[in-house]
Amino acid sequence: MGASGTAECGGSPGRPGFRAVGDACESDHRSGQGADAPRRGHGPRGRPRDHRRGVRCLGAGLPDAGPARHPDRRRYRRDPVREGRRRAVLAGQHGQADDRRGALRRDAQGQARPRHRVHDQRECLAPRRRGRRRLVDVRPAQQQGEAARPPARHRGPVRQRRGDRRGRGRRRHGGQFFPDHEPAREGDRARALDLPQCHRLLGARPEGHGPGHGEARHPPDRDLPGELQALFRARVHLEQDPPAEPQPAPHPRHRRRRAEDRLPRGIRLRPDRLGGAERPAPGPGGERPQDRPRPRRGSPQADRVGLSRLRGAPDLQRRRDRGGGRDLRGREGPGRPRHQEAGALDAAARQRRPAGGARYLPGPADRAGGGGPRGRPAQGHPRRAGGARHAALHRRGRARRHHDPARPRRGARGRHRLVPPGPQPDHQQVVTGTIVTGAPAEVLARPGGFITFEGGEGAGKSTQITRLAAWLRAGPDRGPREVVTTREPGGSPRAERIRAAVLSGIAKPHGPFAEALMFAAARLDHLATLIRPSLARGAVVLCDRFSDSTRAYQGAAGGLEPETLAALERVVVGPTRPDLTLILDLPPEIGLARARQRDRAAAVTPDRFEAEALEFHQRLRAAFRAIAEAEPGRCVVIDAQAPPDAVAQAVRAAVAARLPHLAPGVSDAA
Ligand SMILES: Nc1ncnc2c1ncn2[C@@H]1O[C@H](COP(=O)(O)OP(=O)(O)O)[C@@H](O)[C@H]1O
Ligand SMILES: Cc1cn([C@H]2C[C@H](O)[C@@H](COP(=O)(O)OP(=O)(O)O)O2)c(=O)[nH]c1=O
């Protein structure tokens, strides 16, 4: 093929000035078979180029290079990677026609490139490996520099990536369809990069031969063209530090999180206050507010129901002590999110709203005393409650909010601000995390109560709970009330699974403390998932056994120290102590007889505690009595030997006496 060698080394008509490096063709200049003429006058600065090892002719054997056929052509077709490169070379040969049309080209891996990169400078396959094709620009340096300078609109890396993306898929090239050839290996990405990219990485000018080029920093290998030197140097950079992939846009939810994260530490958002965030007062020791024990406000009862978390707690508690107000329940529970409280209170407020959906409307007194803009009553923060200064502050806050798109629009989430007619009762009644401002106590939450039933086996607890629930559901004069009946261990799906395990006796070999821990675990879930949410809704919760059973069974009867159980109770129960505990008392022999009769009827075997000896049950009875004596304000002992109706009557009387707001009426209770 010496005949084609001379012509091909001079450059094919479609690809003047290019040669392939490392290809094994018959025009190999090492073998001396190629023509000498193109060896001189093709390299930059007129240097001879082809004396280097492995510089061979481009285009030998290519279909449009002449009638001669390359002997390795069939081999290329069998190797997909090499086939892709061969087609890239083909594409380069058709480049001039494509360039005139402004078409994209394909590099050696089949990726499309803007034409200014492809035409004369790009086809440098860096590694010197035997059998690999490298294209070397052998045109004069000035011409190379002109071709290497990309147009401004293609200079940035983003443009380059977009070009790559556009090149994917099948693309018509020179009248033929060529499939894509993705880079076979990661290293091919570095090898496929073009020279402008190399220049950028080297901090050199694209022209490549002036001051500031890589040659100035590295001793130049004068035998190599400047672009090839640059590529060899850049390859190291590229393989170590590949170009950054475009980052996907952050998800809107993440953006929102980041916006919240920008809040200074200690500041929390107040959804009820459109004014935004508040910073709780710093602790004396610099501790975080959420780590601080909550301050006690008012009575222990107020603390139990979480009134300490309400700004109007003292006032509400005063109302309740007078008997004219309503209790707030169930806003304790550190694990429960505030919006849940808000939802519960909102629901309660909606229930209490007058029929027809009418809301409280602002009266003249509202406008007189610190009214808001356009005659609306001042709402939200107590500082805005009265006086022109506070009204002006309020207006300023509204104006600011109007221009802040990050803040929710007023009423956008369907919340209502209920303002009673007449003078504002007490603007301290702002509930953290919810919407109510200045509403009377009975609007804030529906009153509820937490009543537990305790006693030995077969005392009649389940029977009496059912009866009391029916009585309480009638509710007071204002209408029916929600009553939740539950039991321990159990009451929630997870707690029921613990119940099944512990009553099967699985923890008995581990001792009473292990059993107490299992009961505590069940209680934790029960409280979190059922009891506290129900109390927060204002429901009455009737529970068959609670923490007093742990004291009696695992403590007094099981031998566990009271201090241990008290600590466990403090951790698990916290402030959610029962309002009233009804202890059904009867001799254990009678209770066990009833329980066995019940079990036979239900065809179940006695559980782990029913199977205990009589002496164990006697200790239980003594323990329950002792608890009642220790806490007379909470506990009432009821004689459970009486007939069921008589016991039910005694239970109602106890509830009416201790929790009068739950009683449906005096006539019913009598
Ligand atoms: N006051 C009562 N007098 C007689 N039998 C009763 C009385 N109360 C409940 N029972 C019966 O005793 C059995 C156990 O009652 P139950 O309510 O299940 O007790 P506990 O829940 O305390 O184990 C049931 O069969 C029930 O019908
Ligand atoms: C709640 C609780 C129950 N128990 C025991 C008492 C009961 O024997 C058993 C619960 O069974 P249960 O069937 O609810 O009792 P009763 O037969 O009285 O209706 O679990 C404890 O030992 N510790 C506890 O804390």
Largest sheet: 5 strands, parallel
| Percent range of helical residues | 40-55%
* Count of alpha/pi helices: 27
How far is it from the N-terminal to the C-terminal residue, by CA? 121 Å
Strand order of the largest sheet: 13-14-12-15-16
* Number of separate domains: 3
- The counted number of beta strands is 16
Shape: extended
Strand-pairing-aware structural class = alpha/beta
The unreliable regions are 1-68, 94-108, 112-134, 146-195, 201-225, 234-247, 252-446, 666-670
- Strand percentage lies at 5-15%
Structure description:
The protein has 670 residues and is an alpha/beta fold. It folds into three domains: 2-240, no CATH class; 302-383 and 414-441, no CATH class; 448-669, 3-Layer(aba) Sandwich (Rossmann fold), CATH 3.40.50. The protein is 41% helix and 9% strand. It is built from 27 helices and 16 strands. It has a five-stranded parallel beta sheet, with helices on both faces. Strands 4-3-7 form a three-stranded antiparallel beta sheet. Strands 1-2 form a two-stranded antiparallel sheet. A hairpin with a 2-residue loop joins β1 (11-12) and β2. α21 packs parallel to α23 and α22 packs across α25 (614-630). The N and C termini lie far apart (121 Å). 41% of the residues are buried. Adenosine-5'-diphosphate (ADP) is lined by residues 455, 457-463, 594-595, 597-598, 640, 643-644, 647.
Quick tags:
binds adenosine-5'-diphosphate; 670 residues; binds thymidine-5'-diphosphate; Rossmann fold; single chain; alpha/beta; 27 helices; disordered N terminus; 5-stranded parallel beta sheet
